[in-house]
Design a protein that fits this description.
alpha/beta; globular; binds manganese (II) ion
Amino acid sequence: MSRLILLTNDDGLWAPGLQVLREEAAHFGRVVAVAPDRNRSAVSSALSLHTILRLHDLGEDRWTSDGTPVDCVHLGIHQVLDRKPDWVLSGINHGFNLGEDVFYSGTVGAAFEGMLQGSRAAAFSLHPKGDLEAIRPWIRRFLERWESMPLPEGRIWSLNFPKGTPTAFRLTSQDNRKYHDLVERRMDPRGTPYYWIGGDLAPTFQKAPGSDANAVFRGEIAVTPLRLDLGCPEILSKGEAFEATFNLEPK
Ligand code: MN
């Protein structure tokens, strides 16, 4: 049985990265793209609960919606496809999703949703000046082999591709990064201030050994397994002390 592959992104259906991922994924099964009709970057896992959604069939297994990437995953699985997809692929995003970026990323949000809906899921992101043609063979190699590298339940793969031709795959952790001058204040022509988030788009990375940022800035592909469970087992082990502190009799 040929695989059924749902493809989405957060840059919009017409983004060049989606097209490259679609062509490479097509070697492994039937690819159905359901993606936003415009750029919906940095909407994370947003779900439209209070607005209606439209869905347009563009033919040749290409669909677009005015919803978020996660809306597109829901529409794809529950309206477009007649069975659960084997794979949900998201990207290739225009720009990295390193370290804390994964919390904001619509690309990563869509992959998490694919996982929550029961499919094998991965997010793909590329250096903003990256070369889509140079990473094609590496995408294909990853897709050829990722089924033989199973993840425990509740996990996804997040891949970040370097600028230029990659030199290797590297299994990585999440780095830490800082954005600078995040909110910029400007004046409109009528003298009223407006604000622009993401003023300086050059964050500083720690580039800790073994991290995603460390790998991509050395020209390697950072492959980061991610999970949604943000719990803190090291704190849960202190339950007795916590309860002794908070369960005192009220005075
Ligand atoms: Mn994006």
